[in-house]
Amino acid sequence: MTTDIQEWERQLQRELTEIRSNSQQLAAAIAVVRGHGEVRGVLVEVDADGEITDLQIAPGAMRSPGSQLAAVLRDCHRKARADAKAKVKHLVNKADPRIRDQLQRLGSEQKTPDERREQKSEAEIQDADDAYFERMNQQGWRT
């Protein structure tokens, strides 16, 4: 009986070592993910968390009215975040099933009630962004 328990413990240690290694590989792969969005001379690059890591604006785009440039920047940022999210999802889908299943379970548990509702369409998001920035431009920006 003692040998069965010892063998079980050794097997458990091997599996834990393997899961730990696979988890570190996944984390390293996700750390280098970059998403890109490009629209009319504006390029936005984001990391896996959606944080902007690079922003390039062509001189011609700078001649656009401020509200138009702001809309293009928001559109690029949205596209870049979607690109990064898709890349992370692809990496997770290819990951060790023991890790993937836990990440998916964790992701569904961490969503707020608002996040569990149906996602807005791109047009709805754009309309909401436009309304917000129009309101801020009329009322004035406060810091």
TrEMBL record:
Lineage top rank: taxon: Bacteria
Stretch list, region Disordered: 87-143
Biased composition (Basic and acidic residues): 93-103, 111-123
Entries under InterPro entries matching the protein: YbaB-like_sf (IPR036894), YbaB/EbfC (IPR004401)
Pfam families xrefs: YbaB_DNA_bd
Protein name, as recorded: YbaB/EbfC DNA-binding family protein
Organism taxonomic ancestry: Bacteria, Bacillati, Actinomycetota, Actinomycetes, Mycobacteriales
